[in-house]
Amino acid sequence: MSVKTRCKVRCMETGQRASGLTQNGKPALVYTAKFAAVTNGSPENERFFKWTPSMTLDIGTIQEAFFEVSEEYYLDFIPAKEEALKEEV
């Protein structure tokens, strides 16, 4: 059985920090973002809250910051099996 789940999250905070790594000979930054499950604000958010009432996620990338505080994003979870990836392509 292949379970796929879509969550809706709101970006709560962004930042950056030194990574200790280098990129093109320069110290690389890690761009961070913290997310939480949506709880209200629209009928769609209330439906998502029913199925994902609690969630937090902290991520870091070495790409320029591309998340905005207060913006909402969909987050999809799919099994990382080769079969699952073939279905999505």
Give an overview in words:
With 89 residues, the chain is of the alpha+beta class. It has one domain. The protein has two helices and four strands, in the order ββαββα. Strands 3-2-1-4 form a four-stranded antiparallel β-sheet. 7% of the residues are buried. The model has no long low-confidence stretch (mean pLDDT 86).
Key terms:
flat, four-stranded antiparallel sheet, 89 residues, 2 helices, alpha+beta
How much of the residues is beta strand, in percent? over 45%
Number of strands: 4
Largest beta-sheet characterization: 4 strands, antiparallel
Helix-strand category: alpha+beta
Mind telling me the C-alpha Rg? Answer: 16 Å
Q: Spatial order of the strands in the main sheet? A: 3-2-1-4
- Give the ordered list of helices and strands: EEHEEH
Helix content: 10-25%
Spatial shape: flat
Topology summary:
Elements: E1 5-23, E2 26-37, H1 43-51, E3 56-61, E4 72-77, H2 82-88
Antiparallel strand pairs: 1-2, 1-4, 2-3
Short note summarizing the structure:
With 89 residues, the chain is α+β, with helices and mostly antiparallel strands. The protein has one domain.
